[in-house]
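FAQ
Q: What does a multi-component entry look like?
A: The components come first, one per line:
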Amino acid sequence: MIDDGQATDEALLVLFANGDRAAAGVLTARLTPRVYAHAFRLLGNRADAEDIAQEAMLRLWRIAPDWRQGEARVSTWLYRVVANLCTDRLRRSGRTTPLDSVAEPEDPAATPVQSMQARLRAEALQEALNQLPDRQRQAVVLRHIEELANPEIAEIMGISVEAVESLTARGKRRLSAALIQLREELGYVE
Amino acid sequence: MTDKQKDDARLATLFEAARDTSPAPGDDLLARVMQDADRVQGGFAPVTAPARRAPVSGLTRLSRMLGGWPAMAGLTAAMLAGIWIGISPPAGLARVTMAALGGQSYVIDADPVSMFDFTQEAL
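Then the predicted structure of the entire assembly, as tokens:
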């Protein structure tokens, strides 16, 4: 019996490699939403994000028997795989990524107006993110939406911590500039 | 509050909104991911405990070391023949021995009771 709240991703991956199907279920429920959401934020396209999420999880299943414990966190490895897959997808597609609507807010305590505003803000942010250079977008998403620490982002992106700080700072400046026209629409009153 | 601080505060609310409205995967995607997991897991080699070896006696180990039962059969036959020749040496053996040793030989007789060696010059 797997305690899905306690077992680490790595422990579950080892169980999966040893034939435990329940471990696959826990990992799917735990990691697929994160992988899918990250792919969506990098691509801005729901169908592409689904493909990328499935492919990234497939690669995780395949690497399970050869997983070297203690070297990297499973989530860090997955973020890196997603980023690489998204980069390939964007290169191939020439970056024609229509913006799909963002999911409805899940906060049951929010009023319809608050929910609508949160959704508008998320859509506006996604649209602005789509305009950023790939590396800036990735750094901003990992730092400010996934809320990862700079050293982990550096590991995912294969760059130094200073480079991460530089990318996120430039990305935020661009986002602010892109969103300046939408302040009123998004509910920001001066 | 400076302009930069205001920008950061606005962006912070946008990031928060993005987290709150995080796009969730559909059931179809989750089902496909699980199907992949089953398929990949089915291809893994089954994990089995190494088979335990039955305990091996010293005689068996010696037999294996010497080449198994054919070698042991030959060795036993040679040993029995040696014992038989020792108990009842065939007639003419002394002559053959003398010829082989160039005219002089020694018979070494070990008394099995006293374990005293008698050495005498033979013909």
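Q: Is there any commentary attached?
A: Sometimes. For this entry: The longest helix of chain B spans residues 69-87.
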